[in-house]
Amino acid sequence: MKILYGVQGTGNGHLTRSRIMAEHLKEQGLDVTFLISGRQKKDLFSMDAFGEYEHRQGLTFISEKGRINKFKTLKKNNIKKLILDIKSLDLTGYDLVINDFEPISAWAAKQQGIDSIGIGHQYAFLHDIPTEGSSWFTQNLMRYFAPVKFPIGLHWHHFDSPILPPIVDVKLHSTDIIGNKVLVYLPFEDQSYIVKFLTQFPQYEFYLYGPGLQFNNVSNVHTREPCLVGFKNDLMSCKKVICNAGFELVSECIHLGIDVLVKPLAGQMEQISNAKALTHLGLGRTMNSIDKNQCELFLAKDINIHRANYPDVAKYLVDWLQEGKWHEQQGLADMIWKR
């Protein structure tokens, strides 16, 4: 089976779970080519898992100080180039397109009549799940941004729908936890402001990852440049996490049983809805802005959530993919949740 796997490069969540899928696809000897879009190639890192991948410009969004800038987002994205890339992507010889919310490969598969399977959190929004900040525009964005024939949604609960648990690296495990160590990942916020903000809590050691940061220590704030291995090590040894409300990192926290406080990206329906679901399920805390009182309360008082210990969802998915019964999703979901 020859597969094209399209991955949205905006943020790191899509890439994180696609790395895990790539490992299992390779173990099964499947012929997979990855296509990444939504971020400049020079800004991608830790890409070895994807081999000789293809890259396109795709679509992305621009944020400033924790909020989506709609005008700059419209100005940044080149719709004419997107259409040309869709039309020029030749899928001859491919048996299947797998997609993690990547628009070029999704639309090319639709136009060329190639079977496509969507695997990602965004596809959960096609079902009745907790949402907030939804509108006609956001509903259609979820439906038509990267349309697929067989969508597989991922979430922290199935919500009585054929939704699977998150894809996480099951090799992650908390070791030698440092009681005052806090991992902070707020890539859509002003990083210099975050550094200054965190120094208000001198009894805690903050390990801050974000765009433009370098390896440095500023009082009790330890800034780190993007690094997959370093980030995972700090995650496994931290007591708490403060982050935006992206799906993948929060899933890793729930998997490990780490207390998490999220600040959703303003104007981004998915993250606002994730924050609502997190509260609804009792899996973490939320704040709508970078708030000193909220952070102080979170740092001082443990949530003590139950460690989810998710199964190896990627392994089950790859086995299911090879069976070819792609319309039978409810049975797959029921089987995995029972694990």
TrEMBL record:
SUPFAM superfamilies: UDP-Glycosyltransferase/glycogen phosphorylase. It holds the Pfam family Glyco_trans_1_3. This is Glycosyltransferase. It comes from Pseudoalteromonas denitrificans DSM 6059.
